[in-house]
Amino acid sequence: MTTLSCFIAGLPKAELHLHIEGTLEPAMMLRLAERNRQPQPFPDVETAEKAYRFNDLQSFLDIYYRSTEVLVTEEDFYDLTLAYLEKAASQNVRHAEIFFDPQAHTARGIAFATVLRGMEQACTQAHRQLGISTRLIMCILRHLSEQEGMAMLHEATRWKRWITGIGLDSSERGNPPSKFRNLYREARREGFLLTAHAGEEGTAASVKETLDLLHVDRIDHGVRCMDDPALVEELVRRAVPLTVCPLSNVKLRVFGNMQEHNLKAMLEKGLHVTLNSDDPAYFGGYVNENFTAAAEALELSFSDIVRLAENSFNASMLSIVQKKIHLLELADYARRPAPGN
Ligand code: ADE
Ligand code: ZN
C-alpha cells in the first residue's frame, strides 16, 4: 500500500451516493439467482465481469435492471445491504446514505415493505455491530412517469420513520427535471430531504433546472456544471453539495479517463464536492478505490483528500451534533503524521 492509499484507507468518511442495487457483486447475484430459482443473468462470475463494459449510462442501466431481478425476498435485501455496510465499515465509512430504486422491484411484484424491511434490518444490525450510521434515500426512476413516481412517494410517506430523503435517478437524457416538479413539491411538503442526479449525461442546464425547479438540497454527480461559470458561482455561493463518483464517470464515459476528470478543478473553484462510489460492483471499486484512483490521477494533496472527507460529513443528512463528532475525529486523524513520514 502506498502512503497515499494508506492515508485514504484510515480516513473517516461518509458515503452519500451509493445505489444499493449497484453493490450486487456477481458472486452474490449468482448465489441469489440459485436461491430464488431465478434464471441466472450470467452463467458465471467471469462472464458477468466481462459484460461490465459500458458505452454510456443506458448500456449500464440495461444490465443493472436485469441483474436486480435476482432480488426477491426480504432476506435478499438484507444480505445485499449488510454486505455493503460491512465493506463500507471496513473502509472507514462512518455514515452511509443509501439510494434504493423501489420501482425496479415493485414492477416485478415485490412488495415495497419487502425491500424496505430487509434494508432496514441490515442498517440496524450494522449500526449496532459496526457502528456505521445510515440514512435511506428513495429514488424515483425518471424514465417512468411522474404519476408512477407519485405513487411511490405516497408509499414512502407511510415509511417516513425509515426514509429520510427522495432522489431521482435512471436515464437523464429525455427525462428533464421539469417532469418531476409536482413530485418534488409534494416531497418537500412532506419534509423529505431532496437530491437528484443531474449533469451526469445531461448538461449544465440540467443542473440549473434541477436547482431552480426541484429546489434540491444537493446534486448527484453535477460534474457538467463546470461548463457554466455563472452556475458554478451560484453553487459555490449557495454551498450546494455535489456527490461526485469518479470511477463511475470514467466507466460510463462521462470522461475519457481519470486524468481528464474535473474533480480537482471543481475543488479549486470552491465547489462542495464529495467523493462516492455510485455502483461499486459495476464500476471497479468502493469509496476508497475512488479516492485512490482520483488522488493518483489528479495529484490530489493530503489536504484535498481531507477536504473531501470533511465535505462528506457536512453535506450529509446527519444532525449538527453528529456532524461535529465526525469532524472532530477527522481533524484528529488529519493532524497525525501521514503514514510513512
Ligand atoms: N442508477 C444507478 N446508477 C445510476 C447512475 N450513475 N446514474 C443514473 N441512475 C443510476
Ligand atoms: Zn448514481
From TrEMBL:
| Biological processes annotated in GO | adenine catabolic process; hypoxanthine salvage; nucleotide metabolic process
Q: Could you cite one Gene Ontology molecular function of this protein?
A: adenine deaminase activity
Cofactor stoichiometry and binding remark: Binds 1 zinc ion per subunit.
Question: What Gene3D superfamilies does the record point to?
Answer: Metal-dependent hydrolases
Q: Where is this site: Important for catalytic activity?
A: 221
Name the cofactor(s) required for activity, per the record.
Answer: Zn(2+)
- Keyword annotations from UniProtKB, A to Z: Hydrolase, Metal-binding, Nucleotide metabolism, Zinc
One of the record's GO cellular component terms: cytosol
InterPro entries for this protein: A_deaminase_dom, ADE, Ado/ade_deaminase, Metal_Hydrolase
Q: List the catalysed reactions.
A: adenine + H2O + H(+) = hypoxanthine + NH4(+)
Show where the Adenosine deaminase domain sits.
Answer: 12-324
Binding-site list for substrate: 279
Active site per database record: 200
Q: Where does Zn(2+) bind?
A: 17, 19, 197, 278
Q: Name one Pfam family in it.
A: A_deaminase
Instruction: Give its E.C. classification number.
Output: 3.5.4.2
**Any idea what job this protein has?**
Catalyzes the hydrolytic deamination of adenine to hypoxanthine. Plays an important role in the purine salvage pathway and in nitrogen catabolism.
NCBIfam families given in the database record:
aden_deam, PRK09358.1-6
* Family (UniProt): Belongs to the metallo-dependent hydrolases superfamily. Adenosine and AMP deaminases family. Adenine deaminase type 2 subfamily.
Please identify the protein, giving its name as recorded: Adenine deaminase
| UniProt organism field | Pelodictyon luteolum
